[in-house]
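Morning F.,

Quick status update on the modeling queue. The single chain you submitted on Monday has been processed. Sequence for confirmation:
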Amino acid sequence: MTPVLVRQHLPHAGPTSRADLGARARDWSEIQERMLVPLYEAVHERLDVGPGTRLLSLGCGSGLALVMAASRGAVLTGVESSSPARLALARERLLGENREARARADVRLTDRLPTDRPAGPASAYTVVTAFEPIGQVAGETEELTEVLAAATPLARRGAPVVLVGWGPPERCATTAVLRVAAKLADQDRGTVRLRPALRDDLEDAARRAGLRPDGSGRVACPFGYADLDSALKGLLSTGLFDAAVAATDQAQVDKEVTEALHPYRRSDGTVWMPNVFRYLIARTP
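Structure tokens below.
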């Protein structure tokens, strides 16, 4: 699954060196991923993730949400197909020196959706999460729908499936910065179009995947950075500015994103952007 806020790269964005991808994955892991911790916590608490949970995480990135679920006692499978560098970081976090033993016991990390269907209710997943927020890139609900439809047979009947989206633009300060990407991207050459989140994005994706919406919630996830440089690295690590870089150049994007961040800079040099994310809980048939 290709990440969205958390989108590692966008089609037609041009070549990126292996070194750049590795550095960007590290920026995501060390700077940006933690911004979604309140969301992870809220969902885990609401679904009572714990020792009895078999969790399938779609687009697990560098694994922070999985680390949090593991600390609650869940058995984990993380899928990260778009970024080998992020998957490698997830393996470092979750397996470490005891990689083989832990992988056999309670953690499975892979670059593709498992193909082995559960033999029965005891081996089926009890929770499925897709924590990558949609609502900024046109066409991403179709991609999410395909992934959810493929994952549904792996889950227990009636299992919760969590989808996440950006909140209303007026409640997401980061939206103003993301407009820089839309302005700079050369949309006449087939680059991915940014667009505002729609109220029913999540419900639409869930229903088209054959899932039944069953509750939702909103979580404040402010983006806070130590300085402008950290903010720039964190935001660029999402991949949402790749099309803009391809259409102009890295220096131009860096310059304009930095300028867009100035209204959110505090007197001590830190950068603070309030955001709200919405999650939907849907049920498998």
